[in-house]
Design goal:
CATH architecture of the largest domain: 3-Layer(aba) Sandwich
Distance between the termini: 36 Å
CATH topology of the largest domain: Glutaredoxin
Number of strands: 12
Strand content: 25-35%
Structural class: alpha+beta
Largest sheet: 4 strands, antiparallel
Number of helices: 5
Strand order of the largest sheet: 9-8-11-12
Order of helices and strands: EHEEHEHEHEEEEEHEE
Length: 260
Amino acid sequence: MKKKIVIAMLCLTMTPALLQAGLMMSRQKKIAQEATEVRDPLPGVAVVELFTVRNSPRYKSADWMMRRLSFEATKSRARLYALAFHVDYARNTTDPLSTPVNTRRHYMYSKARDDGKVTAPQMVVNGNQDLGENAQEAVYSVAKTLQTPSEIEFRIEGAITPDGRHVVLKYDAKRVPKKTVLNIALVDDGMPVEGKMTEKNLPVVPVVLGFVQVDPHSTNGRMRIDLGDELRGVVTSAIAYVQRRDDLIVLGADRVDLLQ
């Protein structure tokens, strides 16, 4: 039976003109949803990396779009993992959540694209970095990705050690090809949504506070990550995803709540 997908089709682009007109905050007028019945979980996995600067003019519109995507994914039982990578290269802006690691990752995508240009906010869906600032294209990319079965089977579990100093993770993967990298994003999920999750009560986009890469040498593995003083007490979950090294396409992903 053909699956129908719940996904927010946002009729907007992240431009200063829209912000100045005040249209970006008219949320109900900017959303057109497709048919919504989902009988089974969608077969695909979507890792949506948002490279952003907190105090940039377009931060709010990009953040809201990511929150909306997460909301629709939750309703449709889709495996969508949203990640906010705050970067530190933007002019005339300061972002206390930015890190050099996040910025280097954004430049890695631009280098793979051969133009060396970076812009924030920018969404990357499963390694596809050609979406630029076009929100509608990004949403359609997410919808298509979620309907495409994942290339590998990947699961992760883990917890923070009792002393709060380390994260211990175990992963299990099948059909992982050579020349891949396992990305581990240590994130802060923010305050949980109080009450029922609705269009006006959307989840917070997980913020990447730490980022580690390892080679998945076998179908399963175990790792121990030092949180250090900066991350101790603020990391709440880990999102892990396997990515090809040549074309940067994401093959599979999973999330673990570290506080359970």
